[in-house]
Amino acid sequence: MNKEHRYIFEKGSKKHNCPECDKKRYVMYVDIETKEYLPEQYGRCDREIKCGYFLNPYKDGYAKAVWKQEQGNKNDWKLTRPKPLKKPKIAFIPNDVLSQTCAGYDKNTFIQNLLTTVAFPFEVKDIEKVISLYRLGTVQNGYRKGANTFPFIDVQCNVRAVQVKQFDEHNHTTSTDFLHSIIEKHYTRINEPLPKWLEAYNKNDTMVSCLFGEHLLNQCPDNPIALVEAPKTAIYGTLYFGLPERPTDLLWLAVYNLSSLTLNKCKELKGRDVYLFPDLLAFENWSAKALKIQERMHGTQFHVSNLLEQLASESDKEKGKDIADYLIKQDWRLFRKQSVEEEPTKSTHQNTSLDSF
User: Fold this and answer.
1) What is the pLDDT of residues 95-106, one digit of tens each?
2) Is the residue at 78 inside a domain?
3) Which domain holds residue 136?
4) Which end of the chain is less crowded, N or C, counting CB atoms within 10 A of the terminal residue's CB?
5) Do residues 209 and 161 touch, judged by C-beta distance below 8 A?
6) Does 326 lie in the same domain as 236?
7) Is residue 167 part of a domain?
């Protein structure tokens, strides 16, 4: 067989995660003799402008090296990865824009519910600490008035995104938005040009590009991480299990949504113990992802809790409930001295248990 045609791009529409940008837009090379993939670095990302990663097994010497090995010849060929293209500069939300949300808590439905309407209201001092820690805020005017703001601030304290959520009297989400979108609609409505920062921000490839609470990692360098899907769940976890005041306390972070558990999102967690609490029906998905991420983050341990899978009824599973739905029914005072403990298991998954349930 002509060795020039032995390695080809995989046929069909299947895509893989790109080794450079981690987006699922990557086409890998396959060996048509063995029907196996080549090492994952050989392929092409179809995000030509945003990423442009491409490594050809013929041009870097891989194909020739394999051929020589099969002929019984030794060679000293070494892999050389292509230099990544210069990535577009990320634009951030100005801190003074975020600061404008840090008020109006007496009109904030989410915060007021935690103080008054939940089954076991929290103490004012704890709510104030959580607000300060995660920099929660309020939309004070307009069609989202009274909504809570959840800022995604990276480890360098850059504001990557600000999610806006409105809640009912039970703290169930009724609508979701983003602060930059609200601001853009305001300027469009009054027929004025967008601020320069917003024009630049709208060109970002991804808005939510860090973990919720990521800015706390430097403040809590040794704390184990509790990782959940939604920011609201991270807030509940902090209120129930306590703030990360000691190195052994959990630091609660959120990825944003189900599909946001990625290597790129988790890169700042390297070297930590990370306990994942997936929403119902997401256990298998997150377990598989966690294994792949752990393989590429040496020194990091991911423990995926099956707690909700054990507790939930079929009805709860169908509704896709998360750990916050269970926590809010309990008295938070019973949780403050509890800890996350790993259970031995014969499963390939790693499990954790919370004795308080």
Assistant:
1) 999 999 999 999
2) no
3) 90-210
4) N
5) yes
6) yes
7) yes
Choose one of 70, 105, 128: the last residue of a domain.
70
pLDDT digits (tens, 9 = 90+) for 24-35: 899 999 999 888
Q: Are strands 24-31 and 16-17 parallel, antiparallel or unpaired?
A: antiparallel
Are 303 and 272 in contact, with CB atoms under 8 Å apart? no
27 phi, psi to nearest 5 deg: -105, 125
CB 307 within 8 A of CB 340: no
- Any idea which residue has 């990535």 for tokens? 87
Output the average pLDDT for the chain. Answer: 87
* Residues 6 or more apart whose Cβ sits within 8 Å of residue 143: none
Q: How many CB atoms lie within 10 A of CB 351?
A: 18
Q: What does the DSSP assignment read for 1-54?
A: --GGGSEEEPPSS--EE-TTT--EEEEEEEETTTTEEPPTTSEEES-TTTT--E
pTM score, two decimals?
Answer: 0.74
Q: How far apart are the first and last CA of the chain?
A: 63
Which residue among 24, 41, 70 closes a domain?
70
Is 307 exposed, middle or buried, given 0-12, 13-18 or 19+ CB atoms closer than 10 A? Answer: buried
Q: How many domains does the chain have?
A: 3
Q: What does the pLDDT look like over 242-251, one tens digit per residue?
A: 999 999 999 9
Same domain, 299 and 347: yes
Same domain for 255 and 330, yes or no, is yes
